[in-house]
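User: I've been going back and forth on whether these two constructs are worth ordering. Before I decide, could you fold them both?

Assistant: Sure. I'll take them in the order you sent them. The first construct and its C-alpha coordinates:
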Amino acid sequence: MSLFLIEANPSNRAKEVIARSLESIAQEARRWGGNLLEAQIAADGSRCFLILEASDLSVAEQVVRQRGFPVHVAKPVRLVGQDLESVRDRQIEVDFVVEWDFPPGLTMEAYLARKRANAPRYALVPEVKFLRTYVCEDMSKCLCFYDADSSEDVLKARQLVEAPVDRITRVDASLGRPSES
Protein backbone atom coordinates (compact mmCIF):
# COMPACT_ATOMS: atom_id res chain seq x y z
CA MET A 1 0.00 0.00 0.00
CA SER A 2 1.11 3.51 -0.81
CA LEU A 3 0.04 6.85 0.62
CA PHE A 4 -1.67 9.34 -1.66
CA LEU A 5 -2.68 12.97 -1.22
CA ILE A 6 -5.89 13.98 -2.92
CA GLU A 7 -6.81 17.64 -2.72
CA ALA A 8 -10.35 18.49 -3.71
CA ASN A 9 -12.90 21.25 -3.56
CA PRO A 10 -16.27 19.91 -2.40
CA SER A 11 -19.18 20.68 -4.72
CA ASN A 12 -21.38 21.17 -1.65
CA ARG A 13 -19.80 22.87 1.39
CA ALA A 14 -22.49 21.89 3.89
CA LYS A 15 -20.85 20.09 6.81
CA GLU A 16 -23.37 17.26 6.89
CA VAL A 17 -22.92 16.63 3.14
CA ILE A 18 -19.12 16.64 3.48
CA ALA A 19 -19.32 14.28 6.47
CA ARG A 20 -21.53 11.83 4.54
CA SER A 21 -19.24 11.99 1.51
CA LEU A 22 -16.17 11.31 3.67
CA GLU A 23 -17.89 8.34 5.28
CA SER A 24 -18.78 7.01 1.84
CA ILE A 25 -15.18 7.46 0.65
CA ALA A 26 -13.91 5.64 3.76
CA GLN A 27 -16.35 2.75 3.25
CA GLU A 28 -15.48 2.40 -0.43
CA ALA A 29 -11.75 2.54 0.33
CA ARG A 30 -12.14 -0.33 2.81
CA ARG A 31 -14.15 -2.28 0.24
CA TRP A 32 -11.21 -2.30 -2.20
CA GLY A 33 -8.65 -2.90 0.54
CA GLY A 34 -7.59 0.70 1.06
CA ASN A 35 -8.05 3.19 3.87
CA LEU A 36 -8.97 6.84 4.20
CA LEU A 37 -6.19 7.54 6.67
CA GLU A 38 -7.24 11.12 7.33
CA ALA A 39 -9.21 14.01 5.92
CA GLN A 40 -8.49 17.62 6.80
CA ILE A 41 -11.31 19.91 5.71
CA ALA A 42 -11.03 23.70 5.57
CA ALA A 43 -13.24 25.34 8.20
CA ASP A 44 -15.26 27.00 5.43
CA GLY A 45 -15.64 23.68 3.56
CA SER A 46 -13.82 24.99 0.49
CA ARG A 47 -10.91 22.52 0.44
CA CYS A 48 -10.23 18.93 1.42
CA PHE A 49 -6.85 17.33 2.02
CA LEU A 50 -7.41 13.57 1.91
CA ILE A 51 -4.69 11.04 2.71
CA LEU A 52 -5.52 7.58 1.42
CA GLU A 53 -3.71 4.28 1.71
CA ALA A 54 -4.24 2.44 -1.56
CA SER A 55 -2.53 0.34 -4.15
CA ASP A 56 -3.80 2.43 -7.07
CA LEU A 57 -4.02 6.22 -7.16
CA SER A 58 -6.47 6.27 -10.08
CA VAL A 59 -9.01 4.15 -8.18
CA ALA A 60 -8.73 6.36 -5.08
CA GLU A 61 -9.10 9.50 -7.19
CA GLN A 62 -12.16 8.09 -8.98
CA VAL A 63 -13.89 7.28 -5.67
CA VAL A 64 -13.30 10.83 -4.42
CA ARG A 65 -14.64 12.35 -7.64
CA GLN A 66 -17.74 10.13 -7.55
CA ARG A 67 -18.54 11.45 -4.06
CA GLY A 68 -18.79 15.05 -5.27
CA PHE A 69 -15.23 16.20 -4.60
CA PRO A 70 -13.66 17.62 -7.78
CA VAL A 71 -9.97 16.67 -7.54
CA HIS A 72 -7.26 19.19 -8.40
CA VAL A 73 -4.21 17.38 -6.95
CA ALA A 74 -3.60 13.64 -6.72
CA LYS A 75 -0.07 12.52 -5.87
CA PRO A 76 1.91 9.92 -3.97
CA VAL A 77 3.21 11.27 -0.65
CA ARG A 78 5.61 10.29 2.10
CA LEU A 79 4.76 10.71 5.79
CA VAL A 80 7.43 12.59 7.78
CA GLY A 81 7.52 13.40 11.49
CA GLN A 82 5.16 10.73 12.76
CA ASP A 83 4.66 7.03 12.19
CA LEU A 84 1.62 5.60 10.43
CA GLU A 85 0.21 3.96 13.58
CA SER A 86 0.23 7.30 15.42
CA VAL A 87 -1.74 8.88 12.60
CA ARG A 88 -4.23 6.01 12.72
CA ASP A 89 -4.64 6.54 16.50
CA ARG A 90 -5.67 10.19 15.89
CA GLN A 91 -4.84 11.26 19.41
CA ILE A 92 -4.31 14.96 18.59
CA GLU A 93 -6.59 17.02 16.37
CA VAL A 94 -5.19 19.05 13.50
CA ASP A 95 -6.06 22.76 13.58
CA PHE A 96 -3.99 24.09 10.66
CA VAL A 97 -2.56 22.80 7.40
CA VAL A 98 0.42 24.70 6.02
CA GLU A 99 1.37 24.25 2.39
CA TRP A 100 4.84 24.95 1.10
CA ASP A 101 5.50 24.78 -2.65
CA PHE A 102 9.08 23.54 -2.91
CA PRO A 103 11.62 25.50 -4.94
CA PRO A 104 12.90 23.75 -8.06
CA GLY A 105 15.85 21.46 -7.42
CA LEU A 106 15.13 20.71 -3.76
CA THR A 107 15.81 17.04 -3.11
CA MET A 108 14.14 14.81 -0.55
CA GLU A 109 17.52 14.32 1.17
CA ALA A 110 18.13 18.08 1.41
CA TYR A 111 14.60 18.67 2.66
CA LEU A 112 14.88 15.99 5.36
CA ALA A 113 18.31 17.27 6.48
CA ARG A 114 16.94 20.80 6.77
CA LYS A 115 13.92 19.53 8.71
CA ARG A 116 16.11 17.57 11.16
CA ALA A 117 18.36 20.58 11.75
CA ASN A 118 15.54 23.09 12.33
CA ALA A 119 12.85 21.00 14.07
CA PRO A 120 14.28 21.43 17.62
CA ARG A 121 13.37 25.14 17.40
CA TYR A 122 9.69 24.24 17.69
CA ALA A 123 10.36 24.00 21.43
CA LEU A 124 10.63 27.80 21.44
CA VAL A 125 6.93 28.03 20.57
CA PRO A 126 5.18 25.73 23.09
CA GLU A 127 1.74 26.98 22.04
CA VAL A 128 2.23 25.20 18.69
CA LYS A 129 2.56 21.46 18.28
CA PHE A 130 3.96 20.23 14.99
CA LEU A 131 2.20 16.95 14.20
CA ARG A 132 3.36 15.61 10.84
CA THR A 133 4.21 16.38 7.25
CA TYR A 134 3.24 14.77 3.98
CA VAL A 135 5.84 15.36 1.27
CA CYS A 136 4.83 14.85 -2.36
CA GLU A 137 7.17 12.27 -3.85
CA ASP A 138 7.64 14.51 -6.92
CA MET A 139 9.05 17.17 -4.54
CA SER A 140 6.45 19.73 -5.65
CA LYS A 141 5.24 20.59 -2.14
CA CYS A 142 4.57 19.48 1.39
CA LEU A 143 1.65 19.75 3.80
CA CYS A 144 2.48 20.30 7.45
CA PHE A 145 -0.16 19.66 10.11
CA TYR A 146 -0.29 21.61 13.38
CA ASP A 147 -2.20 21.75 16.64
CA ALA A 148 -2.40 25.45 17.58
CA ASP A 149 -4.84 28.14 18.67
CA SER A 150 -4.07 30.68 15.98
CA SER A 151 -2.56 31.04 12.55
CA GLU A 152 -0.29 33.73 13.96
CA ASP A 153 1.25 31.18 16.33
CA VAL A 154 1.77 28.73 13.47
CA LEU A 155 3.39 31.44 11.34
CA LYS A 156 5.69 32.36 14.25
CA ALA A 157 6.73 28.71 14.61
CA ARG A 158 7.35 28.38 10.87
CA GLN A 159 9.51 31.49 10.96
CA LEU A 160 11.57 30.07 13.84
CA VAL A 161 12.21 26.80 12.00
CA GLU A 162 12.97 28.74 8.81
CA ALA A 163 10.18 27.06 6.86
CA PRO A 164 8.26 29.04 4.24
CA VAL A 165 4.46 29.22 4.06
CA ASP A 166 2.65 29.47 0.75
CA ARG A 167 -0.83 28.84 2.13
CA ILE A 168 -2.30 28.23 5.57
CA THR A 169 -5.71 26.70 6.14
CA ARG A 170 -7.67 26.40 9.36
CA VAL A 171 -9.39 23.03 9.35
CA ASP A 172 -12.55 21.76 11.02
CA ALA A 173 -11.40 18.87 13.20
CA SER A 174 -14.95 17.58 13.56
CA LEU A 175 -15.00 16.63 9.86
CA GLY A 176 -11.63 14.96 9.59
CA ARG A 177 -12.27 11.72 11.46
CA PRO A 178 -13.44 8.89 9.24
CA SER A 179 -15.01 6.07 11.21
CA GLU A 180 -13.33 2.71 11.62
CA SER A 181 -16.43 0.58 10.99
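The second construct, handled the same way:
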Amino acid sequence: MPALPDTAPQWLFIDADLLVVDKPSGMLSVPGRSEPDCMAARVQAHVADALVVHRLDMATSGLMLFARGKTMQQHLSRAFARREVHKRYVAVVHGLMQHSAGEINLPLAADWPQRPRQKVDHELGKPALTRYQVLARDSTHGTTRVALEPVTGRSHQLRVHMLALGHPILGDALYAPGDVQAKSPRLMLHAQSLALTHPRTGHELRISQDPPFAS
Protein backbone atom coordinates (compact mmCIF):
# COMPACT_ATOMS: atom_id res chain seq x y z
CA MET A 1 0.00 0.00 0.00
CA PRO A 2 1.41 3.43 -0.90
CA ALA A 3 1.92 6.07 1.74
CA LEU A 4 -1.31 7.72 2.82
CA PRO A 5 -1.74 11.48 3.07
CA ASP A 6 -1.44 12.50 6.72
CA THR A 7 -4.18 15.14 6.61
CA ALA A 8 -7.97 14.95 6.60
CA PRO A 9 -9.94 12.94 5.60
CA GLN A 10 -9.25 9.83 7.65
CA TRP A 11 -7.77 7.34 5.20
CA LEU A 12 -8.44 3.65 5.83
CA PHE A 13 -7.20 2.14 2.56
CA ILE A 14 -5.73 3.36 -0.70
CA ASP A 15 -4.12 1.76 -3.75
CA ALA A 16 -3.94 2.51 -7.46
CA ASP A 17 -7.57 1.44 -8.03
CA LEU A 18 -9.70 2.47 -5.08
CA LEU A 19 -9.70 4.05 -1.66
CA VAL A 20 -11.82 4.04 1.50
CA VAL A 21 -12.26 6.90 3.95
CA ASP A 22 -14.17 7.39 7.19
CA LYS A 23 -16.78 10.10 6.68
CA PRO A 24 -17.76 12.03 9.81
CA SER A 25 -21.37 12.59 10.78
CA GLY A 26 -22.66 15.97 9.60
CA MET A 27 -20.71 16.04 6.33
CA LEU A 28 -22.26 15.69 2.89
CA SER A 29 -21.01 12.88 0.66
CA VAL A 30 -21.22 15.05 -2.48
CA PRO A 31 -21.73 18.80 -2.95
CA GLY A 32 -25.13 20.23 -2.03
CA ARG A 33 -26.99 23.04 -3.73
CA SER A 34 -25.45 25.67 -1.49
CA GLU A 35 -22.72 23.67 0.26
CA PRO A 36 -19.60 22.80 -1.76
CA ASP A 37 -17.73 21.26 1.18
CA CYS A 38 -18.21 17.50 1.17
CA MET A 39 -16.36 14.21 1.48
CA ALA A 40 -15.84 13.93 -2.28
CA ALA A 41 -14.22 17.37 -2.49
CA ARG A 42 -11.92 16.69 0.45
CA VAL A 43 -10.81 13.36 -0.99
CA GLN A 44 -10.25 14.81 -4.47
CA ALA A 45 -8.10 17.57 -3.00
CA HIS A 46 -5.54 14.85 -2.21
CA VAL A 47 -6.36 12.17 -4.83
CA ALA A 48 -7.44 13.93 -8.02
CA ASP A 49 -8.75 10.84 -9.83
CA ALA A 50 -11.04 9.71 -6.96
CA LEU A 51 -14.66 9.25 -8.03
CA VAL A 52 -17.74 8.58 -5.89
CA VAL A 53 -19.15 5.06 -6.02
CA HIS A 54 -21.84 5.30 -3.33
CA ARG A 55 -23.10 7.82 -0.78
CA LEU A 56 -23.88 8.01 2.91
CA ASP A 57 -26.54 10.25 4.41
CA MET A 58 -25.13 13.49 5.76
CA ALA A 59 -25.97 12.44 9.33
CA THR A 60 -24.41 8.98 8.97
CA SER A 61 -20.72 8.42 9.68
CA GLY A 62 -18.51 5.65 8.38
CA LEU A 63 -16.87 3.98 5.42
CA MET A 64 -17.12 5.49 1.94
CA LEU A 65 -15.61 3.75 -1.08
CA PHE A 66 -14.12 5.75 -3.97
CA ALA A 67 -12.89 4.51 -7.33
CA ARG A 68 -9.75 5.84 -9.00
CA GLY A 69 -10.73 6.65 -12.57
CA LYS A 70 -13.81 6.06 -14.70
CA THR A 71 -13.08 2.44 -15.55
CA MET A 72 -12.76 1.42 -11.91
CA GLN A 73 -15.85 3.47 -11.04
CA GLN A 74 -17.83 1.44 -13.58
CA HIS A 75 -16.49 -1.85 -12.17
CA LEU A 76 -17.34 -0.92 -8.58
CA SER A 77 -20.73 0.53 -9.47
CA ARG A 78 -21.64 -2.75 -11.17
CA ALA A 79 -20.48 -4.65 -8.08
CA PHE A 80 -22.83 -2.54 -5.94
CA ALA A 81 -25.69 -3.08 -8.39
CA ARG A 82 -25.10 -6.86 -8.28
CA ARG A 83 -24.97 -6.74 -4.46
CA GLU A 84 -21.39 -8.00 -4.44
CA VAL A 85 -20.28 -5.31 -1.99
CA HIS A 86 -21.32 -6.25 1.54
CA LYS A 87 -21.97 -3.41 3.98
CA ARG A 88 -22.49 -3.57 7.72
CA TYR A 89 -23.70 -0.73 9.90
CA VAL A 90 -23.94 -0.30 13.65
CA ALA A 91 -26.78 1.67 15.22
CA VAL A 92 -28.12 2.43 18.67
CA VAL A 93 -31.90 2.35 18.69
CA HIS A 94 -34.67 3.26 21.10
CA GLY A 95 -36.15 0.41 23.14
CA LEU A 96 -35.11 -3.16 23.87
CA MET A 97 -35.44 -5.24 20.72
CA GLN A 98 -37.26 -8.50 21.36
CA HIS A 99 -35.66 -10.72 18.72
CA SER A 100 -31.91 -11.22 18.55
CA ALA A 101 -31.82 -11.42 14.73
CA GLY A 102 -34.16 -11.14 11.81
CA GLU A 103 -35.11 -9.42 8.57
CA ILE A 104 -37.15 -6.34 7.73
CA ASN A 105 -38.74 -6.69 4.29
CA LEU A 106 -40.80 -3.55 3.66
CA PRO A 107 -41.05 -1.61 0.36
CA LEU A 108 -40.03 2.05 0.45
CA ALA A 109 -41.03 5.12 -1.54
CA ALA A 110 -40.46 8.87 -1.37
CA ASP A 111 -42.80 10.73 0.97
CA TRP A 112 -43.27 13.59 -1.52
CA PRO A 113 -45.10 16.06 0.76
CA GLN A 114 -42.30 15.66 3.32
CA ARG A 115 -39.20 15.33 1.14
CA PRO A 116 -36.49 14.12 1.72
CA ARG A 117 -38.34 11.70 3.98
CA GLN A 118 -39.08 8.19 2.79
CA LYS A 119 -41.93 5.93 3.89
CA VAL A 120 -43.14 2.35 3.81
CA ASP A 121 -45.45 2.05 0.81
CA HIS A 122 -46.90 -1.38 -0.01
CA GLU A 123 -48.54 -0.12 -3.19
CA LEU A 124 -45.88 2.02 -4.88
CA GLY A 125 -42.72 1.28 -2.91
CA LYS A 126 -39.61 -0.45 -4.23
CA PRO A 127 -38.48 -3.69 -2.53
CA ALA A 128 -36.19 -3.09 0.45
CA LEU A 129 -34.58 -5.71 2.68
CA THR A 130 -32.54 -5.21 5.86
CA ARG A 131 -31.02 -7.91 8.04
CA TYR A 132 -30.32 -7.18 11.69
CA GLN A 133 -28.52 -8.75 14.65
CA VAL A 134 -28.65 -7.48 18.21
CA LEU A 135 -25.21 -6.77 19.68
CA ALA A 136 -26.20 -5.60 23.16
CA ARG A 137 -29.24 -4.44 25.12
CA ASP A 138 -28.98 -1.66 27.70
CA SER A 139 -31.90 -2.01 30.10
CA THR A 140 -30.74 0.98 32.15
CA HIS A 141 -31.11 3.41 29.24
CA GLY A 142 -33.73 1.43 27.32
CA THR A 143 -31.64 1.11 24.14
CA THR A 144 -30.30 -1.61 21.87
CA ARG A 145 -27.05 -1.71 19.93
CA VAL A 146 -27.68 -3.50 16.66
CA ALA A 147 -25.76 -4.50 13.52
CA LEU A 148 -27.61 -3.76 10.28
CA GLU A 149 -26.99 -5.19 6.82
CA PRO A 150 -28.82 -3.43 3.98
CA VAL A 151 -29.31 -6.06 1.27
CA THR A 152 -30.88 -3.40 -0.94
CA GLY A 153 -29.73 0.22 -1.00
CA ARG A 154 -32.81 2.43 -0.80
CA SER A 155 -32.56 6.00 0.43
CA HIS A 156 -32.82 6.18 4.24
CA GLN A 157 -33.54 2.44 4.25
CA LEU A 158 -32.06 1.62 7.65
CA ARG A 159 -33.64 4.63 9.33
CA VAL A 160 -37.14 3.93 7.97
CA HIS A 161 -36.95 0.19 8.58
CA MET A 162 -35.92 0.61 12.20
CA LEU A 163 -38.70 3.15 12.70
CA ALA A 164 -41.20 0.71 11.17
CA LEU A 165 -39.95 -1.99 13.55
CA GLY A 166 -40.75 0.33 16.46
CA HIS A 167 -37.12 1.10 17.27
CA PRO A 168 -36.10 4.47 15.76
CA ILE A 169 -32.39 5.29 15.74
CA LEU A 170 -31.28 7.68 18.48
CA GLY A 171 -30.63 11.23 17.30
CA ASP A 172 -32.57 10.79 14.04
CA ALA A 173 -33.84 14.29 13.32
CA LEU A 174 -35.94 13.13 10.35
CA TYR A 175 -37.75 10.09 11.69
CA ALA A 176 -37.47 9.72 15.46
CA PRO A 177 -39.93 11.28 17.92
CA GLY A 178 -38.62 14.33 19.77
CA ASP A 179 -37.66 12.47 22.94
CA VAL A 180 -35.65 9.92 20.94
CA GLN A 181 -33.94 12.65 18.92
CA ALA A 182 -32.92 14.34 22.17
CA LYS A 183 -31.09 11.26 23.43
CA SER A 184 -28.12 11.95 21.15
CA PRO A 185 -26.58 15.05 19.53
CA ARG A 186 -25.98 13.00 16.36
CA LEU A 187 -27.58 10.17 14.42
CA MET A 188 -26.33 6.98 16.05
CA LEU A 189 -25.70 5.19 12.77
CA HIS A 190 -22.25 4.25 11.47
CA ALA A 191 -21.16 2.40 8.32
CA GLN A 192 -18.74 0.05 10.06
CA SER A 193 -17.43 -2.29 7.37
CA LEU A 194 -17.12 -3.03 3.67
CA ALA A 195 -16.27 -6.37 2.07
CA LEU A 196 -15.71 -6.85 -1.66
CA THR A 197 -13.58 -8.63 -4.21
CA HIS A 198 -10.88 -6.30 -5.49
CA PRO A 199 -11.72 -5.72 -9.20
CA ARG A 200 -8.08 -5.95 -10.33
CA THR A 201 -6.41 -8.45 -8.00
CA GLY A 202 -9.37 -10.71 -7.25
CA HIS A 203 -8.42 -10.73 -3.57
CA GLU A 204 -11.04 -10.28 -0.88
CA LEU A 205 -10.86 -6.83 0.65
CA ARG A 206 -12.34 -6.27 4.12
CA ILE A 207 -12.14 -2.88 5.80
CA SER A 208 -13.72 -1.87 9.08
CA GLN A 209 -13.79 1.05 11.48
CA ASP A 210 -15.59 0.98 14.82
CA PRO A 211 -18.24 3.63 15.41
CA PRO A 212 -17.25 6.78 17.31
CA PHE A 213 -20.08 6.28 19.80
CA ALA A 214 -19.80 3.85 22.70
CA SER A 215 -23.45 3.24 23.49
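Notes on the second construct follow. The mean pLDDT is 93. The longest strand covers residues 129-138.
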